[in-house]
Write a structure and sequence with these properties.
This protein is of the alpha/beta class. Helices cover 30% and strands 24% of the residues. Strands 5-8-7-6-9 form a five-stranded mixed barrel, surrounded by five helices. Bound molecules: hypoxanthine.
Length: 273
Amino acid sequence: MNATYQKLEACLKSVRAKTGFKPETALILGSGLGDFADEIQIEQAVDYSEITGFPTSTVAGHRGRFVFGYIESVPVVVMQGRVHYYEGYPMTDVVLPARLMGMLGAKKLILTNAAGGLNPDFKPGDFMLLTDHITTGVPSPLIGENLKELGPRFPDMSEVYSLRMRNIVKEQAQNLGISLQEGVYVQLTGPSYETPAEVRMCRIWGGDAVGMSTACEAMAARHMGLEICGISCITNMAAGISRQPLSHQEVQETADRVAVQFKKLITAVTVNI
Ligand code: HPA
């Protein structure tokens, strides 16, 4: 059997030895949203370190565990702390958690992240609904022998971010009085922030926001047929757009400033999607 699939099965077995919980919706939380788990009626938590072969996150501010529980009546699994390509893991490990949540039974995936704004109409603290993505800046997680147990060799990517879900997100944001931008997310490897020239390139490519996660997870999840929505928190304007040098502290501060609103939006989306 394929080594990537074998690893997934070992992880699945490891989680299943601890919980039989069957989630309907999976959530991956970005920087600053780690405490979203407080919104969940927690049934069980499984630390990544308890899962055989699981890539454990090294980024400060990212807790490493799956939280199983309910948001209102919706059974969810929440990935508290994600795995990033810049940590040095192979792409197949980076998307392992997303695939694992699909194998645990989740049919829907909500992705969140912190991102730099490329679109000059955006400002720090805005939320952006992902309409599409560009993964040209990172290796595809689907490279290698196809995992036919999960999906086809040449999967369609014409609607990675479900139109049905996008409409619900917009409706929920409107109900909550939260303004929502829309646009295309560009994933680059990081960990350095972009140069101003790279930012201009991303803009010419057609991007509205740039970050270091999400699109690879969306691609792997779409490969296995999950329905996906993604929301970015624009924590800063990308390099060269604002004159200020970028820092992780600025990213964290903006994410913290809008965390309450972000939590409200994600909760409403999860319940209604
Ligand atoms: N670039 C890349 N990733 C990011 C940024 C950025 O400006 N802000 C938050 N995550």
